[in-house]
Prior knowledge:
Layout: H1 3-9, E1 19-25, H2 40-51, E2 55-61, H3 63-72, E3 77-81, E4 91-92, E5 108-117, E6 123-124, E7 129-130, E8 136-139, H4 143-151, E9 156-160, H5 163-171, E10 177-181, H6 182-192, E11 198-215, H7 216-221, H8 223-238, H9 240-250, H10 258-267
Parallel strand pairs: 1-2, 1-3, 8-9, 8-10
Antiparallel strand pairs: 3-11, 4-11, 5-10, 5-11, 6-7
Amino acid sequence: MTLRLLLLMCLSCSGFANELRICADDRNVPPLLYSDGMGIAQYMVPLATEALGVTLRLYHRPQPRCLYGAANGQFDALLLASPNMKTEPFVVFPTNVKGMPDNRYAFVSMRVVAFRMKGANARWDGEHFLDLTLPVLYESGVPAVNMFMDKLPAPSRASARTPIHMMQMMRLGRADIAVGLEPAVRYAMQQNDPDQQFEVIDPPLFTSSLFLAFSKPFANANPALTRQLWEQIRLLSNGDEWQSIKAQVMNNQLPPTPQLERAVQLGLQPDARAP
């Protein structure tokens, strides 16, 4: 039985909400989300909702506003979220029999890394930042990174919204070293570092898995739909069709699907359910 047939069989499911409002970060989160194209999550979620007969509205906001919107009923789900103390009070993740996040349903697991200009003395040794002369930079609006950095004794500041901004600040001598999601950092280097002035430092700070996460009210009201959507993402991730285009999607080399374009357009229209 083909993956497409499995997805179409779900059209007969009943009792689901007929619309899903998902909020996505308004920044690039390679390889999951591209503001000017289509990443992994942008490819999979519109297909999964279509297979279940659910209309998708996709909104783009700063990640803190997405989380706030999920908490106050403006959004039903976050396109991308990682389990931590800042997200878990408001959204739910797929869990295994032990109640832990189930990575079978994650879009991807990413390393969080430190990076710097070549020749800089500042470094990360796996436990501490050393030889700092200025605070460590990290992205605002990434809860898992914010929480990790808050626990470290090293001075740090969340004063940049993207790896590109952090690269600019280091070039201006306003920071020695910065922290970000590795795919986003490497994508920024490919796009904005033609002279290869920057380098990623090993080892990583930690690894973070990213999921489609549902607001607690929506998940409580639609438990079957939430489980089905996570299952569709897992099926898509293991399907032959995905394996054939995976590299192109991850590198933002394919145009948005009609399903994604429709979801974005619906997200631009007024929402009668909005508070």
